[in-house]
Amino acid sequence: MKFITILLTVFALESCGNTKAATNLQNNIEAKQTETLSGKYMISSFIDNTELPDNIHLNFDATTNKVSGFAGCNNFSATYSTEGNTIKFGPLMSTKMMCKRFMDVEQNFLKTLEKVTAFSVENNVLTLKNSKENLVFAAKNNSSKIAQGDDYSIEYISSTRGSFLKIEIKNDSIISQKQRGAAPEARKFSPSETTDIFNKVAVLNLEELENLESPSKAHQYDGAAAATLIITKNGKTYSTKAFDAGKPNAKIEDLVNTIFSLSEKQ
Asked: Taking the model in full, what pTM does it have?
């Protein structure tokens, strides 16, 4: 009888141990599944600030390990690396516009990012933290990906008397024409390329394209190539003023550089 009792006790302990192990394994799996850092996150609050500008956000690109975003007045970008739930941002680079409002908020936000050493993502809420406290809270914005119902196209055109370049992007295709009268070259995007290009469009304020100033004016005086960026969304067209080819306004520089990079792969 004692032997049977001991045997049942051992079996019960072993079953309990297996249950705990299975539970811990499941918890670890679930933890890994919730710790996915990608896409656009809208900042809801960060330490020492209450009033935030519209559209302040972070946008993580897991394929390139680059983060970009809007800090209140300027766009910014940096590299980042993660290991487990730790995160390290590279040097933050930003445009140099001056704004009447939110410059102090922007400076505090960028300084706060420099203090971040860890992160967590649960229920689409991103928390950036260090060893002492939570620093930034942000909510996943699923609209950062172009909705299937949206119809987007992008055109980049540059020309002089002796040169011509037209690059057109529609949905998952890119079409390049590198000389007047030449046959266009076309190819399909990969899924990651499609996400990359339209994430860069999603962070732009399309209404302000027409007011962006060119950082240089060579095309107006010495016949240098003049370029224009045109974005059409759901039938409405947004266009920049002419600017020197290769020298776009800082707000569209990342998008223009990506367009060139994608066209060179053809």
From this structure: 0.46
